[in-house]
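Worked example 4.2. Below are the chains of a multi-component assembly; read each line carefully before continuing.
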Amino acid sequence: MSGALGRRRRRQARTAYLFLAPGLLLFAAFRLYPLLEGLRLSFTNARLGRATEQFVGFANYTRLTEDSRFQVSLTNTAFYALASTLPVLVIPLLLALALNRGALRNTLRSVFFFPFTLSVVTVGLAWLWLLDPVVGPFNYYLRRLGAPSHSWLAEPQTAMWAIIVTTVWWVTGYYLVIYLAGLQDIPRDLYEAAALDGAGGWRSFWAITLPLLRPVLLFVMVTHVIGSFQLFGQVFVLTGGGPGDATRTVVQHLYETAFQNFFQFGAASAMAWVLFAVVLGFSVLQFRLLRGHTEY
Amino acid sequence: MNRAGRSVSRRTFLIATAATTGVAAWPRFGLAQPKATITYWNGLTGADGKVMDELIDRFTQDTGIKIEQQRIPWAELYAKLQVSVPAGEGPDLALIHTVEVPHFASDGVLEAIDDATLGGKGFKGDDYLPATWQGGTFQGKRYSLPLDVPQHVLYLNVKVMKDAGFIGADGKPKVPASRDELVTMAKKMTKDDSFGFGIGTVNPGKYTWGFHNLLWQNGANIYASDLKRAGVTDPAALEVAEFWAALPNQHKIVPPANASCRDAFIANRLGMWIAGSWNFTGLREAKVDFTAAPLPRIFKQPVVWAMPHQYTFPKVKTVDRAKREAAWTHVRWITDHVADWTLKAGQVSASRKGHTDPRVTADPVLRTLLAQAPNWQVGQSTPKWVAAENVTRPMIESMYTGQKPAKAAMEDLAKQINALPE
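Applying the procedure described above to all two chains together yields the following structure tokens:
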């Protein structure tokens, strides 16, 4: 009896693996293999166009400790991740609370979601024009109001903030939809019970809404921080990493090392693995900080 | 039904065989043979791309050779060449900038062109201007053939200069004769969001080609003459760097680092503008009242930055003779019709052939560009040039935006250039 059961389970397992095989094969070919190949390359002096490559040990990694531009890129990326997280957490949440009910909610949800349907290049080009120091509308209206105009993207003090504003405008609609889904999942009777106990809107928000939205907040935070460390498109279009290196990010530095400055695939792979370690570290930290109090 | 009735005589058999062979061989020698189709990659993404399309249509009509173009922004085109050629997936023909020749040649991406082949196709150095012809070589071997000469020129906005009182008795805008005069004139034209002087089409703060031009005018360069050590900390280079930093921070005569000088010029908010020759057809379309003048001598010599486009034959695993021949036919045809390219795309030709065409000499801007020919200079012939240019960009921008003093920026740049891998 047990033998027949075992055979049936093995047959079922074989069938399951057979169905999984196409997906696993694609995963192995397009995810796993490049990942491992990248790891191998990071220990070589591989350069596209050069026939041979040599094993250089940890040289590519140790060189990063002397690469001042990589360190600046890492600092800029970390600053962007930290500075943009709060507005990305708060602004869509406030909008979601406002749009959870009301007559125009569907229309307004669409309006706020619209920017997210645009590609990063479209968003970048639109903001590039809006913020143009000479012919851009922002400065035009500032001048009309008698205020001094600014080169928002060319001044080191404002360039990264301009990128953050652009990004928040772009992604708010996406996180808004996620928050709305989270809000819909909160049972109405909790609010009714709280109201019967005399709790006002503010108290209900702190005691019911926020704790029950914690998994959504965690999701938004983790995905945004991971996305922040991969920041490239907005910077590439808006500032090219400038002024100087004021908005240069790790992915941009990596891209230029791999595809513009001598195709140094070995050095660029080492950067990619360092970035992976940093993102992994941040993700683990966030899970540790928020997971203990979260019910799934 | 007897065998004799169905037999074939030897004569009939031979005639039939000859006829069959003749029919089979006909396309090899006759008019029915299809012409080759070649692939051609270029980065002519602006208005010049449409002009190239028109010329290629005419070429196909004339020769029957079809060309499949891939038009990719220059930076991506170069990355794609570097990846695809070693994989045997490169094009039959590619148009690249002169400064790309050394590193592509060094990496074995380009086919060398021997003198016998050149001569056989009717190309010789005497037909070209020396700076352009020499740009196609690396370490004594030829890898490319120049098409045209994108270069800098000084655009003068007539309205802005008139408002500032810089129109001479002859009705023409005044051209500054020295660095001091340029600064003085520019200061008079600068107010609020209008600027007296600009260099570069967009993002003037990191316009390396403008910075190179000023270096060359002062006898300096990115690399020292040995092409190994950075030359940007030499006194002549530092003088240029100081001037570059002073333009926005001390003189305050140039648009912000990320402005579009082209838009500012079109909007009559920029008086004197050093920019590429590729801009002038667009300015005419925008109906801006402007003139073009030879580049002024801002430092020691009136050197003009130039960057000829070069035709190259990327390496292939096995040469398809018909395709290679077709690619040569195209280069020959374009060279013979280069005046049409000059007139419509606004780029003067590298070969002397188009320079005497009356349609070209009748155009005042093209005449100005041709007059600059003795002063043309191109980038240094080293595989590291492009990588050095990439690290120069943020450094000159950091001076322009006042983040770094000139000397510190140049020392930092020299360190980065010297650290570039072999």
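Take a moment to check your reading of the output against the notes. The interface with chain B takes residues 45, 47-51, 69, 132-135, 139, 143, 149, 151, 153-156, 239-246, 248, 256, 259-264 of chain A (CB under 8 Å). DSSP finds 13 helices and no strands in chain A.
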